[in-house]
Amino acid sequence: MKQRPYNxxxxxAALPAEVLEQAAAEMLDWHGSGxxxxxxxxxxxxxxxxxxxxxxxxxxxxxxxxNFHILFMQGGGLAENAIVPLNLSGGAAAxxxxxxxxxxxSFKEAKKYCDAQLAAANTAADGSHTTLPDPATWRLRRExxxxxxxxxxxxxxxxxxxxxxxxSLGSDAPLVVDCSSHxxxxxxxxxxxxxxxxxxxxNIGPAGLTIVMVREDLVGHALPVCPSAFDYKTVAExxxxxxxxxTYAIYIAGLVFQWLLRQGGxxxxxxxxxxxxxxxxxxxxxxxFYSNKVERSCRSRMNVPFxxxxxxxxxxxxxxxxxxxxxxxxxxxxVGGLRASIYNAMPLEGxxxxxxxxxxxxxxxx
Amino acid sequence: MKQRPYNxxxxxAALPAEVLEQAAAEMLDWHGSGxxxxxxxxxxxxxxxxxxxxxxxxxxxxxxxxNFHILFMQGGGLAENAIVPLNLSGGAAAxxxxxxxxxxxSFKEAKKYCDAQLAAANTAADGSHTTLPDPATWRLRRExxxxxxxxxxxxxxxxxxxxxxxxSLGSDAPLVVDCSSHxxxxxxxxxxxxxxxxxxxxNIGPAGLTIVMVREDLVGHALPVCPSAFDYKTVAExxxxxxxxxTYAIYIAGLVFQWLLRQGGxxxxxxxxxxxxxxxxxxxxxxxFYSNKVERSCRSRMNVPFxxxxxxxxxxxxxxxxxxxxxxxxxxxxVGGLRASIYNAMPLEGxxxxxxxxxxxxxxxx
Lengths: 366, 366
Known about the structure:
Two copies of one chain form a homodimer. By secondary structure, chain A is an alpha/beta fold. Helix content of chain A is about 35%, strand content about 15%.
């Protein structure tokens, strides 16, 4: 088969071709059942087997401890911005670290349900986000029910390369982590985390599935106004089948999990992510033409926003990129420029092709 | 191609083979874009075209008036049970007609958000639901912000063959209709409806997509505790893209809409539904062996629960059915027996095959 274009979309994002090929082959008949996966009752043995396998594979990939529930939900990160405080805040205090658009949105939405306060922010005078605030400076309230952060800001390209150890900072609050855009690209230190959630449409693939991994003791405290379908206790007690789950998205996520296991799991994904990110940032920094504004210590391995010295160059850059099979490189409208999202499904060859095109473009326009 | 098995699942349910074949063919490359639909940014021109076409086709199929929004949401009917009162009740009065499991769940969930009262119920002394209460007897409160009913009860097999005209009953309340399990099998009289919602996993296909059609004047009154991602105003203002929509489910729904248009639209689907239902109910009634307990005037054309005189016959019936390619005929656990869901994607030949098997089974076991 001809090489597929390299798709740098920030999400919904590229899937491994092997996964799509298997899904296409099984579309009308899954394993001789006479049904496609989309046509199966979620209560039937076929789909229950698919969902159990997906959950077990994810638990294995991320070493999710036995005292954490894995929930398959709907609504994405933006819905979780309400669902987390509805379940965890008790209407009391919750602290937020704001490091970009996503954590800002989480902070704003939480104010509807609890006493949400800013523990720290990285906003510069010009509104940009290019650094991470040092945890030693965070204002942690003793009464906070949890502390929320976004461990990889998709739009601003900022990543926590180590999760803070709140206990060493004198806080007993569980850490809530929005890891949507780098889940499965690195291990999660569960000793530091109470809840981690991720919309699947970035580093897993299908939109419409939200994965919530939550410590058992944090479940069962929802506010009375929490919709039953979004009450973690209800969802957990029904094995993520209180309401009909997004069955096909779970199936595709499960195929991605199996693909990840075949590749060597999360450790191998991290090795590749480091390699791809070093190649791309290295090319940007060495160019004297392209630039990335994020402090090196917190540059995202997944989402790389970058800029050129002249606004008029973006249109021809994007046009030439498409002609070379390099897709969806336009930057987010709130920051402009270009952005390459290089998730697990992006092979090293895709980043090499991008760097090669960048060099060529610079030679013509730099 | 060999005849596929006939799949009588109540949901997620069978899809037209043509739709699945097209989805499989386009899985790795949609219309030469170099991307599968699952890999496209929801903000890109390709997916926006898919979503717009799906919305326009649905509007055409159901003759949705211009003053109704069509929203693509997540969470299914069970989430809407909270989302509707969060948006429409204003924390005040709302009336409910309970005719089976689904409307019972809607009534219970709404009590969390408003003064929900029973306008009518069809519950018999033994807990069964086999009739519809006469609208002339409903207790409609003047102050009710809306009246909720489920126009087709999937589990109990009861269908409203005409929506009540609340104005003629002296009520100005908008009617809220959960039409999940018979949407697109008949026209909707929009002059009688304020909001209609449907989980897509029954008579459209993919799970994880909820369709909400709501009159503009009912939007913009959400309670402060309504999550932003489920506030109809926010969803409408963002063209159903406030949070990342379930893109692949929207694409599949769109393929189903185009299939429906090719078949002759909703009028043709209704003609076929009547024909299929008459065939199946006729066979049940004439058998003296199989039985359906629902009053004839409100039997569902979509979901046909039926029973045999001896509990011990169900296991061999289901085993023989599978051997003949007749799948997912087991009744819902709350009512037992058998259930054939004969949605739009079920051809007449499937019902003929079922009736033929029923006759054969009766001859051996009757």
